[in-house]
Amino acid sequence: MVSFAVALAAAGAVIAGGAPGSAGPLPDAAAAQPGPTYVYKVHAPLGQQSQDLLGRGFDVLEQRDGDSLFVLGGKDEGTRLQQAGFTAVVDQVLAPPQWTPPAKKSQVDAADINETFYGGYHTVNAHYAHLDAVAAQYPSLTTLVDYGDSWKKTQGAGGYDLRAICITKLNAGDCALDPNAPKPRFFVMGQLHARELTTGDVAWRWIDHLTSGYGTDASVTALLDSTEVWVVPQANPDGVNIVQQGGNSPIYQRKNANGTNGSNCGGSASSQLGIDLNRNTSSHWGGQGTSSAPCDQTYKGPSANSEVETQALQSLWRSLYKDKRGTAPGDAAPADTTGVVVSMHSYSNLILFPWGYDSTQKAGNDAPLRKMGTDLQAIAGSGWTSGQPGEVLYNAAGATDDWVYDDLGVASFVWEIGPSSGSCSGFFPTYSCQAGTFWPKVKPMLTYAADKAAGPYATTTPPPTGCDTRTNDTDVAIPDNGAAVTSTITIADCTGNASATSQVEVHVKHTYRGDLVLDLVASDGSSYRLKSSNNDSGDNIDTTYTANLSSELRNGDWKLKVQDVASQDVGNIDTWSLTV
Ligand SMILES: [Zn+2]
Fold first, then answer.
1. Phi, psi for 471 (deg, rounded to 5)
2. Ligand 1 centre and the CA of 193: distance in Å?
3. Model ipTM value
4. Which of 11, 135, 485, 578 has its CA 20 to 30 A from that of 394?
5. What residues are annotated to the active site?
């Protein structure tokens, strides 16, 4: 898309002179998007001005450039911005739509897997046919879950099932809708905001990467042996259905398709029906960054958790994760909490984590969340930023990542994938950007986040103290051809299990060392043979033995046990040392 930076007064002439494209037949009233669409760059520094802009119902993009935010709208939107007291310039003029909707079908069939729009993006039916195909090909790795119905389906007006796939090396109890299931769970979803096309495509590739990589890719194999990976590629299928009806000029539908409170919305980018599913959860519903006007893009809905898509997600998450957190904003989930949830959005190259409703509030697990944020930022590369939404973008209440952390204590993130400028920027990047730019960047981010599901808040174990080499140099006489004698080393303050290459340094005075049998005895009574008897007639033992003590706790009493099993020669344990 060509970028214009034209002052509003001058842009007015451009707008008036631009001939709107022929709209053609409209496939669906909800999909109407007449005339060209404009991106306005608006002066709105972090803080009050940003929240004002959101509060007035402008379609504020999930993008920031220094002190500027960006607003999507028709040709009148610039005037509205000026009247509201904002300084704005036209940043981009987007091509008017040319309607080439994909064929409508009453149900998904296998052939739909090839159904695409806008140069390769998959339709909802294609995504669902893909889930079915993957499940059929990899039955030992996959479980399909229908976790609810879209709003249109509940109305008997078309619509879709809400579908998830659980991917893991399946054992008993895996992928059950039970928070006590054995493996930790990584959950990722795409297109909760329907028009954010990149996120659905990333989900598709992630599913293929995992299922085709099991048994051949070591990191995928290790992940699926230890972890469940849940993917919801189309979290808002009704919304995506509207987007895809634009064909080669996708519709800028962000919200779901529930028109109950917005049936008279104009259909332009700044006046659309539906509820913003990322403002509708019951966590701080109705707070900053939400709108009460049904046609606004950040419309929070008539009540908290009013939407069937939101209800279904909240219910699914409660069936996947235990509640590990108290109710105060600063309450922390414990270090043994498992699970990571990522909601993929676009764009602006941001890693966001709770709290989103108010950046002056810090999560109880702020430090590990922030650390994961900076790790992900480093993996993503230059141009990425991480922080709470209000620190880097704007405060926004009722989002799913806040809900997941608020209700369950699970580590949760929003990723805003994609640059703010350049050929792969925007909601609708050229399809070749997916394989060439986004997937190589997001794949290692997903891998990192999935690996973290086992313990996102686990602190790195500090090097234990009290683990230095210990020595006992008290002599112990060894009776000739008699009972075994022992010398003890006690280890305390050295937590964890001993090494598989523990070192036992032994010095014994003796005139015929072949008579001697040496064992190391752990505090639980387990015995490790260091040396057997033989015909070696030499004097003394001065040897360091390596023992695999990895099944033993380091702390406890360790005994060197020595027995003389033949007559005539005598001696004593001189000194011995143990490094566990
Ligand atoms: Zn979004």
1. -130, 140
2. 5
3. 0.97
4. 11
5. 416
